[in-house]
Specification:
Strand order of the largest sheet: 5-6-7-4-8
CATH superfamily of the largest domain: P-loop containing nucleotide triphosphate hydrolases
Radius of gyration: 25 Å
Low-confidence stretches: 82-105, 351-355
Shape: globular
CATH class of the largest domain: Alpha Beta
Mean pLDDT: 85
Distance between the termini: 45 Å
CATH topology of the largest domain: Rossmann fold
Bound molecules: adenosine-5'-diphosphate, magnesium ion
């Protein structure tokens, strides 16, 4: 394993051991920058995360590293920048290479593979919200059947699962022209099976999938409750897996959370790499808008794009929809809409968007952030790991929600109002002395506000 593969393997395992929010916060932009036999040096983006990894995750990281290579005995964290070799996958914006006939490409879907050439890695914008999934997808398309099998990508609607799975397929076609690739949404798999049973052609149906070198099944959550399809898929999965054929899957939720899915399938799905796609941050939304305007040779001012990126926050399909509306306006009026017009066009999107956090959100984010149970945070437990986060939650409730001290005390562990006052004042005082606490609380606030839906 080289450095990059080693770290990817560590990340894949860490994901199972900590909450999703902690993973995104602490492991984003980390890399192994060098290693010798016994020691690994990990680069991290800030002093803050360095401290955090050292104090909280050092043992588990070392344990995993050691299990992957038992010579490794020590980790060092550094904030120096990783060298360029890390950036192997294309992360920059593509040049304007796509022709004007993008719409027609929809018609060019390959009937053998079901791949649409429109979806590539080149036009897949990478940001913190999807980089793990993208990196894993990129890795398997360079080395199908070898690195992660299966790859299981999950995330909400319109966030790029289909695009990524299709890009994997297209990239494999490019790298290995002789490999047989099959992409299929699970609904089609199910209806194909029903038809095959009806037509007594079930053997042909099985062969078609068992011959694949790369089998990609989109939206596997729809297999829930379809016993016969699950049964057939289970056998196909095993047959391919045993022959080291690559399997890639997507779903709107992690395997564990798919209801009415047989345990044996869940455990197969969990046996490889699981990567989630979250919501894009502002910078990535801007990058996506710019890529799409370039692709389509549209021209809107930076201000207009910034406006769209700030009001359409968590779905890439909606970002595209917004661009379509602007393009339609431009065509009809033969002029580019200025910011006032854009604001009126999208008025309905922002009315009612009140960026106010609520009590539930604060509790949820704080407990996720510190990796403790909500019930512990709300209990009267005096355990050290809980007391501190509880004080921070109290501080946030007072500072951001202007909750009254008695209600804060009551809600968090049934405490007296004096406890809430004490916690608030303690954190206020510490904030004046500790840069890293300021940073820590900013992270939490960002998380509270960024996850609120403005639409
Ligand atoms: P999902 O399958 O998760 O519902 P899709 O893959 O269909 O989402 O994505 C919705 C739209 O957004 C598609 O047109 C896709 O090309 C685009 N898209 C999604 N993610 C990205 C990305 N990272 N970069 C560029 N375009 C994206
Ligand atoms: Mg999809």
């Amino acid at each position: 394993m080289n450095k990059k593969e080693l770290w990817e393997a560590v990340l894949a395992q860490i994901q199972f051991n900590i909450s999703r929010a902690s993973f995104a916060t602490w492991f984003k932009d980390t890399h192994i920058i060098s290693r010798n036999k016994k020691k690994v040096i990990v680069s991290v983006p800030s002093h803050f995360s360095q401290e955090w990894l050292q104090n909280k995750y050092d043992r588990i990281i070392l344990k995993i590293l050691h299990s992957l290579d038992n010579q490794i005995k020590e980790i060092q964290y550094t904030t120096s920048q990783p060298s360029l070799e890390i950036a192997e996958a294309p992360t920059s914006l593509p040049a304007v290479s796509i022709n004007n006939q993008l719409e027609f490409q929809e018609l060019q879907i390959n009937t053998e593979t079901n791949l649409n050439p429109r979806y590539t890695f080149e036009n897949f914008v990478v940001g913190p919200f999807n980089e793990l999934a993208q990196a894993a997808g990129w890795a398997i398309s360079k080395n199908p059947g070898v690195v992660y099998n299966p790859l299981f990508v999950y995330g909400g609607v319109g966030l790029g699962k289909t695009h990524l799975l299709q890009a994997i397929g297209n990239e494999v076609v490019k790298n290995f022209p002789s490999k047989k690739i099959k992409y299929i949404p699970s609904e089609k798999f199910i209806s194909g099976l029903v038809a095959a049973i009806k037509n007594h052609s079930i053997e042909d149906f099985k062969i078609k999938y068992r011959e694949a070198d790369v089998l990609i099944i989109d939206d596997v959550q729809f297999l829930a409750g379809k016993d016969k399809s699950q049964e057939e898929f289970f056998h196909i999965f095993n047959a391919l897996y045993e022959k080291n054929k690559q399997i890639a899957l997507s779903s709107d939720r992690p395997p564990k959370a798919i209801p009415a899915l047989e345990e044996r399938l869940k455990s197969r799905f969990e046996g490889g790499m699981i990567a989630d796609i979250g919501s894009p941050d502002f910078e990535t939304r801007m990058a996506i808008l710019k890529t799409k305007t370039q692709e389509r040779r549209l021209d809107f001012s930076e201000k207009v794009l910034e406006y769209i990126a700030s009001v359409v926050q968590n779905n890439i399909r909606q970002l595209e929809g917004a661009l379509n509306r602007l393009a339609a306006y431009q065509k009809l009026n033969s002029q580019s809409p200025d910011i006032q017009i854009v604001q009126t066009l999208f008025k309905n999107l922002i009315t009612g968007s009140t960026k106010v956090a609520n009590y539930k959100k604060v509790i949820q984010v704080v407990s996720e952030f510190y990796d403790i149970k909500q019930s512990d945070l709300l209990s009267s437990s005096r355990k050290k790991e809980v007391v501190r986060p509880r004080q921070i939650a109290m501080y946030l409730l007072r500072e951001n929600l202007k909750s009254s001290y008695p209600s804060i005390g009551r809600r968090l562990g049934g405490k007296d109002h004096t406890t809430a006052i004490y916690a608030y004042e303690k954190i206020v005082k510490e904030l004046k002395q500790s840069e890293s606490l300021v940073e820590e609380i900013n992270y939490i606030k960002q998380r509270i506000y960024s996850s609120l839906d403005p639409l």
